[in-house]
Amino acid sequence: MLKELLLKRRSVRNFLKKSMPKDLFDYLLWVSYGRVDGRLVVPSGGATYPIRVYAVLGDVEGLKPGVYRYNNMENSLSIHLERDVMRDLSRTCLNQRYVADASFNIVIAVNYPRITSVYGERGRRYAILEAGHIGQNIYLACAEKGLGTVAIGAFNDDLVARVLMLPSDVDPLYIFPVGYPAG
Ligand SMILES: Cc1cc2nc3c(=O)[nH]c(=O)nc-3n(C[C@H](O)[C@H](O)[C@H](O)COP(=O)(O)O)c2cc1C
Q1: Residue 133 clears pLDDT 90, i.e. is over it
Q2: Residue ranges lining ligand 1, Cβ < 6 Å
Q3: Which CATH number, 2.40.10.240, 3.40.109.10, 2.40.50.100, 3.40.50.920, labels domain 2-179?
Q4: Which of 7, 61, 111, 112 is least enclosed by beta carbons within 10 angstroms?
Q5: Terminal Cα-to-Cα distance of the chain (whole angstroms)
């Protein structure tokens, strides 16, 4: 089962222009940082949970384009920006067009003080490692559901923070465009 997903896992950079069903969108957010009983779907250094997850839409059934915050403890969404920023986000990612072509993007951001207050500078490393766990979950969930994604690390941090209007203590770490693979 896991082996099948690992065999299917790959980076996808060509997406169909197709609306994403809300249940699949919800599932992708849950696999990224959702809750299971008293813990989350990924490990976290010292259970500090410094990651913040944002969803940039795109074309998701029943939701307006814009930026949403994923409230992982309640598995709910709240609107953060009521504006379509898919193209602006793509520009901040060195014009990688698949960021704009996707149905939505999952933006993994981090509140470093939450973990450096416990571990000092080493906490930054722990937060980045945690984001790696999240990324693999997103890749495998896409493989499971017939969707595509690609890890995006090449972007201008300051510009992404500005486009998404992130709080001053939150930095973007990793971006995952998600959509239906073309071809
Ligand atoms: C930390 C990290 C950053 C990456 N950044 C980008 C990126 O900015 N743009 C991109 O197209 N692919 C990016 N990738 C995806 C890699 O190019 C891709 O994983 C690699 O070519 C292997 O292909 P595969 O994922 O299909 O096995 C990144 C991957 C990682 C792990």
Answers
A1: yes
A2: 10-11, 13, 96, 150-154
A3: 3.40.109.10
A4: 7
A5: 24
